[in-house]
Amino acid sequence: MMLLSGIDAGGIAINWGQNGNEGTLAGTCATRNCDFVNIAFLPTFGNGQTPIINLAVIVILVPMDALV
What we know:
- By secondary structure, this protein is mostly beta strands.
- It has one domain (4-67).
- The protein has one helix and three strands.
- Strands 2-1-3 form a three-stranded mixed sheet, with no helix packed on it.
- Strand 1, helix 1 (25-30) and strand 2 form a beta-alpha-beta unit.
- The protein is flat.
């Protein structure tokens, strides 16, 4: 626990998707309600599969300090 006490894990990270009711990426960033916006979703890859990106229906608010 002593090692973790000096780590700053503050901030909020969200996942932004391409679904119409999630709004625009610019709008999400403009709210300034989060510190990080993750847009990297690659659910299909490897084993000879063609990589497919899917940005739909993904928005999760996670306080970063909850992950420590």
